Known about the structure:
The complex is a heterodimer of chains A (148) and B (561). Chain A is 61% helix and 0% strand. Chain A is built from 5 helices and no strands. Chain A starts with a helix and ends in a 15-residue tail after the last helix. Chain B has a domain at 438-489. Chain B is 75% helix and 3% strand. Chain B is globular, with a radius of gyration of 24 Å. The interface between A and B is large, with 55 and 54 residues.
Amino acid sequence: MSASLSLILAAAGMIGCGVYLLLERSLTRVLVGLVMLGNGVNLLFLVSGGPAGRAPIVGGDGSPMSDPLPQALVLTAIVISLGTTAFVLAMAYRSWQLTDHDDVQDDVEDAAIRRLAAADEASDSFDLSREDTADDELEAPQDEGRPA
Amino acid sequence: MNALVPLPVILPLLGAGLTLMASREPRLQRAVSTTVLAVVVVIAAILLHQTDAHGPQVIWIGAWKEPLGISLVADRLAALMLLVSAVVTLAVLVYSIGQGMTGDERETPVTIYHPTFLVLSAGVSNAFLAGDLFNLFVSFEILLFASYVLLTLGGTGARIRAGTIYVVVNVLSSTLFLVSIAAVYAATGSLNLAQLAGRLDDLPPSVSLVLQLLLLVTFSIKAAVFPLSFWLPDSYPTAPAPVTAVFAGLLTKVGVYTIIRTQTLLFPSSPLTDVLLWAALLTLVIGILGAVAQSEMKRMLSFTLVSHIGYMVFGVALATTAGYSGAIFYVVHHITIQTALFLVLGLVERRAGSTSLIKLGGLARIAPLLGLLFFVPAMNLAGIPPMSGFLGKVALTDAGLRIGTPLAYAVVAAGMLTSLLTLYAVAKAWNLAFWRTPEQAHETAQHLSDAGRRGRFGQVVQHRDHVHVGAHTYGARDLDEARSILDEDDVSHQDLHQLMEEGSVPSRLPRTMVGATAALVVLSLGLTAVAGPVFGYTGRAAHDLLDRGLYVSSVLSGGSR
């Protein structure tokens, strides 16, 4: 099967941008990332359908038809991603209503570990020397106790 | 050709439409959804009997010519899963009606609960019956969309936070599924599972390995197999109790089911035993270590859920009749038991205002029935003889020992360890929440909060703007945020003792809620009583899976490849 290189490149570009945006903290950007990712995958479906041809209607002039199945699949995928987009947008809006931003928040385990480390005097990850040595509030907090 | 096969999908969807129209009539909604799910249970039971007696039941939707349309297939495995899931969804529905989260109260007008729940049930049924990959994808989307809505029901802060992670992870895994489907179609020109069974064999091994890994990763995200399980313990506990229960019972098991299906039907010649054994081992051990560390019962159970997925993956990895048979039995056992436990936690939360082990105490004396309802499934989960959890673990251990490779022995040992640590985790929960007196719990909680106030943490937050943690510097705001995230998960800031002194503890629990939970507990015990016939059935199902000719020939009667 021969595949169209330009379609593959376009899909790769979109998926790459999508993954990059997905790693952002703001839910709106994550959403844009998901949409790009989805559309990149839709292009992959067109690749999987093989070379282009005439419209797949029975009884034509006998020249090769394009494969209709991937197109049907892509249509379904587009409809589903429409629903996803609407839902994530609603969630981002709700998050903004509640917290004035739509950043994806830390998960509970991370927050618990952070809190435990901060509360635990014996923990290495809590820098004791600062409490003992300096009462100087203006001291730049990043200076000390940073593991190399 | 069997007209019963599509009904478990169609009926809930029709019911969803009907309940959506009747959103102003809670009583009609309840009647419709209960009836629909009860009928689905009956249909699933009939299908189970038919497939066991007459072989796989197949229907080509819309009577298209054979390899062209969409096929729904109920073989022994699918029929069993269908029946168990239908029974569990019905029990959870009855429970949630008792809880009153279905639109009766003016403050929480959740009229969408019933339609969404029915859509979820339709999606799960469709996933079990799907005869081609794309239909499987669509059924995943159906059940995921319903689960997004159910998980963020009410749109509170904690649920939005949990929902964000859940939705993004699942959309990502769906995208990955689409990539796999595109790749499979490009390589073989078909998406029908029965056709693929023949065509994938002809591919070069390297190509089919890539396809297999793509599908395996996709389904492992859904099934929460380590290291793709990170999303689960964080997103499940915040949802309403019946929602968490049905998710924990069914959604991950749909993932396990699809792993079993694709491994046996599409890639029987490369079982990837070593990779899956490692995944099983890590899932078992790391999951249960997470559970041991938790002081919140819902989170603890979410971690045991992840951990016990490892048992099923272990059975799949062995790729023998005994292994698959044990895995299928374990899936059935685990669906009932995990759902029952989460329902019990819903009851605990209602009775005592919290599921935090720090705040609870003395529940066994205040509510003996509740204690019994927790104790029996908890011991079953840990695998105390002679309950079904023990029998499932014995079957899997036996299958593992028969393989006899060092890695298989290691996973068997990890399974034993996990069983013991599960016992430790649930026994800890039992001791703290049910056995000690509320006064003891109160004293401990007071002591903890005093120590926290006097200790370094309080000082730091009061006197300093910044706190070092590792390589990072966090301001007081971050710490407050961290604490608020933790607190959000809890309903009440008081412990049980304080609530009792105020007299604000409800004295009775709704009978339907207790009844539905008790029904599931009894069902899990019944599974022990009929374990012989059930194992006979799962053995036959596993045999069918490994001898895929039966599946292929009943779907493609014309022999088209």
